[in-house]
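dumping these here so i dont lose them again. two proteins, back to back, each one seq then structure tokens. dont judge the mess
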Amino acid sequence: MGETSGSNEAAPGLALLPRQGTPRLLGPLLLDYLGLEALPPMPGATGIDGLMAAAGFLRRDGARNLWEREDRTLLVGEEPLEDGGRLVWALPVPWSASQAASPVSQASPTGERVADRVRYLSLASHDLRGSLANIRSYAALLLNGRIPLEPKAQRGLETILRNADRALSFAQDFFDSSRADLGALACERERQQLLPILDAAVERTRAAASAANVALALDDLPELPNVEVDAGRIQHAVESFVHHLLGRAQPGESLHVRAARVGHEVRVEVRRDGAAVPEEDISAVFQCEERAFRERKLEDPLRVFLARQEVEAHGGQVGAQADAGGTTLFLTLPVSLAASETRELGHPAGWQA
């Protein structure tokens, strides 16, 4: 931390400023650099100016990116994200107070690399997903029943539509996972019930289970505490577990989604009742590159790896277990703090019904 460019560079402290809601830390470094125990509230203030002012920092005269408070000087920048939020990064200034008197016209190389990478991913996502969305839209338009189609053309358009949906889903997973690697995965967390999220995940994967001739059920749940989560992210994680186990299930087997409170956490399980899988498969479930090279495909390894990133972004964990009766993938989520239980329940804005 605070080393010159001739040695190891400091890692940037990161925070996400969502389009709505309060700022969220992406790792502990930003608080260390700010010298705070928690991010300050920002009533009526947005962006870097609001965040740094609330933390007690003042912008240095003549230096757009330098902020000071007592003996601390930070280099701070921000980049817009595709969803309307902003990624804020901060670095301790790696020079003495006397050296810092000279004007600074460039952002930190480390900060620039993070910001440039996020911007690059946003551009690539926009271009790729925009083209795929157009293909999908025109295929769906031709399939709306208003235009008579020969059976062969009908099947061809259905194949185009199906593969466009698959490619859009894969592209979304790829770019989300890449953003997560940079600490820039957007998560719009709200305190809410877990049952609707699990129910939506089961309904979204029911057609795939039916096609595989595998029974899929959401078990009766005990009374659960509310959780502070991005509903869409957790739903995606559960769906990823279901798809992974469906790919290994035999016709006639069954999958169960269930949840229970365990101490200060809620544990969500997706259980496949059936033949056990090899131990090496269990130990590598969440290893994206290892599985992709071994299986010679990326779709499922990436999807399950992103599920791990999404859960870890919430402060939770994932795991896999196997026994003679089947296989279980699970995730844990921290229970909302008691103080937050008095707040009004949020609507699951990210819920993918």
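---- next one ----
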Amino acid sequence: MRDKLEAIKAEALAKIESAEVVSTLNDVKVAILGKKGELTQVLKSMKDVAPEDRPKVGQMVNEARQAIETALDEKTKSINRALRAEKMKRETIDVTLPGVKKLTGHRHPNQIALEDLERVFIGMGYEIVEGPEVEYDKYNFELLNIPANHPAKDEQDTFYVTKDILLRTQTSPVQARIMEKGNLPIRILSPGRVFRADEVDATHSPSFHQVEGLVIDKGITMADLKGTLAQWAKEFFGENTKVKFRPHHFPFTEPSAECDITCFKCGGKGCRVCKGSGWIEILGCGMVHPKVLRDCGIDPEVYSGFAFGIGLERVTLLKYEIDDMRLLYENDMRFLDQF
């Protein structure tokens, strides 16, 4: 029995010493110390040993087991140390190399223009108000004095969800909702996304952004409107920017006007940006139509007001001299990184 145990022990220690990977050590452990291992089989044969010899045999088995387990543990640590040293050597970091710069995002040119625009009007006492993009026909058309037979209500121009629900074509419904509440006076700016059935090209998109302003109070006149827009134009495009009104027609304002500004590029002398005219059409505006006031529950004999609508993409293109609106939506980093 002693010779058999010594042979098992010697064989196990030899295999452990020659092992180069941990998996080999696991195989030795299972073969010698496992449930069906050689040392375990010796313990099972103890019933065949004379009673007076069992303590000695048991002690020899335990000594062999302890020697093998100690050798396994030491060899495992040795192999792991060698693997770690090799890995550290392979993964050495050169601390003199420059770090990898992380890409950080920044504001979109549309967002930059919007914040600049909002800053001007907030400085004049305006409140920023937003509303739903999916809107009722009542607020998008009816309360804004746009009759049922108006071309703007044609399905070719408007995205209808149902007969009475649509994707808003302007942010004016926000103004109608605010007027309907009757909390006067009103000074609001309503930015947001709008939708129209336009083909995509350099100046059009089925989804774009508008920023509309509304002022309702006693004694508001066309002079207040022009003064407000003149101040905005100076702060947004430059101190020397001037504005002029041209008569126009909008169903929800009367009188109505198209507002032009002197070309901020050439100062009104004529250039490529203004197509030689010295002026750039910038927005539509006018005095709020008495019928719109009345339909929204405001007495037009007591209150008056003005409204204007600015195409955000339009002023962004002009401010940064971008010649194609599609660049704002294509997510080309070569373009966006310029801002």
